[in-house]
TrEMBL record:
Belongs to the DapA family. This is Probable 5-dehydro-4-deoxyglucarate dehydratase. Pathway: Carbohydrate acid metabolism; D-glucarate degradation; 2,5-dioxopentanoate from D-glucarate: step 2/2. Keywords: Lyase. It catalyses: 5-dehydro-4-deoxy-D-glucarate + H(+) = 2,5-dioxopentanoate + CO2 + H2O. It is an enzyme of class 4 (lyase).
Length: 310
């Protein structure tokens, strides 16, 4: 783990690698390492290991620990490594401590498993998780873990909690959260965590949410980086062209299958030449024709970049 504060290091495109599995279903650490290494070499600003795209839900604690340790070794301090942590509080704390032992720089706290908790319960859950290790925590808002502005303010006051990642997509709620935290003189990092964040990044930037995770970076880092560069430099022509030719069709394709936010990404990584294996149950493989359609979209996005000289 590096000594530099995590909040100051999360500036750029965030990489959420898939977890590689061998033909027998076991974790393939060598291939996972290659995937992480390629992402960092391509220009990722951080590695979020064993999170949603990395099938956290399907990993045993031992597999999780080994993957996080592998990511830490491969990044070698060049960029921070943030690990997932989830389920109920006791298990989330266990995963957090395993991540700390493996050398991670921070945690992405995913929603508690199964139950729909009230705000007091969610606050207690994240507070206990933050207190369990020295790692900084980013809370992932989605599904059964939706926060009110008052709860977000309480989290911003909690030692160890540095950020909020939004996977809900309610811009009205996010604006109220940002406003409430700011009005109290507090700071949080905010992340757009929707499955294809690039489609909504322009809207999120309007309320001050500039960081985002890019699933596209897993299989087309050149396209993802070109979009990020255009966004940050005000190149609206490139941003709009990639939204029209690549990201909007990608979202429409992703909507054609359950679990495609993970399985379609993983299939695209395989098609790109790195055999990361298949998804684990309960996820299923995407239809071959949908993978074909995705690869055509990648070609279309690259053609647009070439035409624009971006």
């Amino acid at each position: 783990m590096t000594t530099a504060p995590l909040a100051g290091r999360l500036d750029g495109l965030l990489f959420f690698p898939v977890t590689a599995f061998a033909p027998d279903g076991s974790v393939d650490l060598d291939t996972f390492r290659a995937h992480v290494r390629a992402g960092v070499d391509a220009g990722a600003a951080a590695v979020f290991a064993c999170c949603g795209t990395g099938e956290f839900h399907a990993l045993t604690p031992e597999e999780f620990r080994d993957c996080v340790a592998a990511a830490v070794e491969e990044t070698a301090g060049r960029v921070p490594v943030v690990a997932g942590a989830g389920y109920g509080t006791a298990l989330a704390v266990r995963y957090a401590r395993l991540a700390e032992e493996a050398g991670a720089d921070g945690l992405l706290a995913m929603p508690p498993y199964l139950v729909v908790a009230d705000q007091a319960g969610l606050l207690r859950h994240y507070t206990e998780l933050a207190a369990a290790t020295s790692l900084d925590v980013i809370v992932y808002q989605r599904d059964n873990a939706i926060l009110t502005p008052a709860t977000a303010v309480a989290l911003a006051r909690t030692d160890g909690i540095i950020g909020l990642k939004d996977g809900l997509g309610d811009l009205d709620l996010m604006q109220r959260i940002v406003s409430a935290v700011r009005a109290e003189g507090l700071d949080l990092l905010y992340f757009n965590g929707l499955p294809t964040a690039e489609l909504t990044v322009p809207a999120y930037r309007g309320i001050g949410v500039t960081l985002y995770s890019s699933a596209v970076f897993c299989f087309a880092p050149d396209v993802a980086l070109a979009f990020h560069r255009a966004l940050t430099t005000g190149d609206d022509t490139t941003v709009n062209r990639l939204v029209d030719d690549f990201y909007r069709p990608l979202v429409e394709l992703r909507a054609q299958g359950q679990g495609y936010a993970v399985s379609l990404v993983k299939a695209a990584v395989r098609r790109g030449g790195l055999d990361v294996g298949h998804v684990r149950p309960p996820l299923s493989e995407p239809a071959p024709e949908h993978v074909d359609a995705l690869m055509l979209l990648v070609e279309q996005g690259r053609a647009a970049l070439k035409e624009l000289g971006a």
